[in-house]
């Protein structure tokens, strides 16, 4: 039997908000999204109240989980509600534009001069690095995964968080089908594959339902994935960001304790314009850009190895020079990268002695060097 939103609301009516009002009457709930036997919704409250609401979130999750036929519940607690606003139905969104950065810094992590000191660190994780792209489809996830493997090959303990909530592709690129387990204290155990600790929202939800996530839910869910996952000790955690430079990405860049960001672009002008936006976004929130990667830089014939500069290659290198950002390297558009990627056997893992693995390793080494300068724990 299918679960209905009304059934969920009926259960939530029995959960109390911190002021003692029923959760359903508190004006904080988003719409209830149901996908098969999985339920998602968010609770939007004012930033200063967020601590008091965490227990409510946990209670709401448990109440809905107890409905027969529900297999998974994701309740995102978001601090997106403006003071004084009455959220009657949907959580208020700042979709109208990029939020004012200076007023939205987390109060518990005031800027202390160093951009690195801005965010609370994730226990056990020495450095979090975002892999971002100004637009979709440039090969960001393929790059993130192969860079993670390149960093692993340099002896680091590496994690990968697929934060691309709009289209999580890490399950496909890694071939991971299983669902993560929970520890006794309810933390999610990342899935271990290729020697990486991997977590993706795609492990929890079906790919098609990813589009229902709104900006505030995205940020909150990712924050929870960062902190509610038992990452263990990691030298580097690579975060595969949602593509684009909109509100959700900016909020993420602000709220994830990033040591740096890597921007993936293709050589086309349009992609480069978007990459520039990405750079501006990270600069705005004082996250150092560790470098730009040009993906699908040139076409390499899988048969004869001949190279063609389909998109007029080299644009990203010039752009990086012009903008004063390191250029990390170029990855060819090659059949074996696509095939290995899409079959769940990333090229650094499946063709470790091949030319593509070498390219990713060199770029990973350069990221490692730059991180070491900023983070002595990454050795
Ligand atoms: N260098 C490359 N050579 C050939 N194919 C590639 C290369 N990089 C990525 N691809 C292929 O391009 C497609 C898109 O790649 P990927 O999913 O990594 O992109 P993305 O930027 O993360 O996409 P999205 O924005 O949708 O999340 C995949 O089929 C992937 O295998």
UniProtKB/TrEMBL annotation:
Pfam families: FeS_assembly_P, ParA. Signal peptide: none annotated. SUPFAM superfamilies: Fe-S cluster assembly (FSCA) domain-like (SSF117916), P-loop containing nucleoside triphosphate hydrolases (SSF52540). Transmembrane segments: none annotated. One of its GO terms (biological process) is iron-sulfur cluster assembly. Keywords: 4Fe-4S, ATP-binding, Hydrolase, Iron, Iron-sulfur, Metal-binding, Nucleotide-binding, Transit peptide. ATP binds at residues 134-141. InterPro entries: FSCA_dom_sf, MIP18-like, Mrp-like_CS, Mrp/NBP35_ATP-bd, NUBPL-like, P-loop_NTPase, YlxH/NBP35. Residues 85-118 are annotated as: Disordered. GO terms for molecular function: 4 iron, 4 sulfur cluster binding; ATP binding; ATP hydrolysis activity; ATP-dependent FeS chaperone activity; metal ion binding. Its cofactor is [4Fe-4S] cluster. Gene3D superfamilies: P-loop containing nucleotide triphosphate hydrolases (3.40.50.300). In the C-terminal section; belongs to the Mrp/NBP35 ATP-binding proteins family. Belongs to the Mrp/NBP35 ATP-binding proteins family. Homodimer. Binds and transfers iron-sulfur (Fe-S) clusters to target apoproteins. Can hydrolyze ATP. PANTHER family: IRON-SULFUR PROTEIN NUBPL. This is Iron-sulfur cluster carrier protein.
């Amino acid at each position: 039997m299918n679960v209905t939103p009304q059934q969920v609301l009926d259960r939530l009516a029995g959960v109390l908000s911190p002021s003692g009002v029923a959760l359903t009457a508190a004006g904080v709930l988003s719409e209830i999204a149901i996908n098969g036997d999985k339920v998602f919704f968010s609770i939007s409250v004012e930033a200063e109240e967020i601590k008091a609401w965490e227990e409510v979130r946990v209670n709401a999750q448990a109440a809905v989980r107890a409905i027969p036929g529900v297999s998974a519940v994701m309740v995102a607690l978001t601090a997106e509600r403006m003071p004084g606003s009455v959220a009657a139905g949907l959580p208020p969104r700042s979709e109208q534009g990029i939020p004012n950065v200076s007023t939205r810094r987390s109060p518990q992590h005031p800027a202390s001069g160093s951009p690195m000191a801005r965010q609370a660190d994730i226990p056990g994780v020495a450095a979090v690095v975002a892999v971002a792209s100004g637009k979709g489809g440039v090969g960001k996830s393929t790059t993130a995964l192969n860079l993670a493997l390149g960093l692993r090959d340099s002896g680091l303990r590496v994690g990968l968080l697929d934060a691309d909530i709009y289209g999580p592709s890490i399950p496909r690129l890694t071939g991971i089908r299983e669902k993560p387990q929970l520890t006794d204290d309810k933390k999610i155990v990342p899935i271990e594959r290729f020697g990486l600790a991997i977590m993706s929202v795609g492990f929890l939800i079906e790919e098609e339902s990813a589009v229902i996530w709104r900006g505030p839910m995205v940020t909150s869910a990712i924050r929870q994935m960062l902190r509610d996952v038992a990452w263990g000790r990691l030298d580097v955690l690579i975060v595969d960001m949602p593509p684009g430079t909109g509100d959700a990405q900016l909020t993420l860049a602000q709220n994830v304790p990033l040591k740096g960001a890597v921007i993936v672009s293709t050589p086309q002008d349009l992609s480069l314009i978007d990459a520039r936006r990405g750079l501006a976004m990270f600069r705005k929130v004082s996250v150092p850009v560790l470098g730009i990667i040009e993906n699908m830089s040139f076409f390499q014939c899988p048969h004869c190895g001949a190279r063609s500069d389909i998109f007029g290659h080299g644009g990203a290198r010039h752009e990086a020079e012009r903008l004063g950002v390191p250029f990390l390297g170029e990855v060819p558009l090659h059949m074996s990268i696509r095939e290995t990627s899409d079959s769940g056997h990333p090229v650094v893992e499946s063709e470790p002695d091949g030319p593509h693995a070498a390219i990713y390793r060199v770029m990973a080494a350069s990221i490692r060097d730059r991180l070491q300068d900023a983070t002595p724990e990454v050795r």
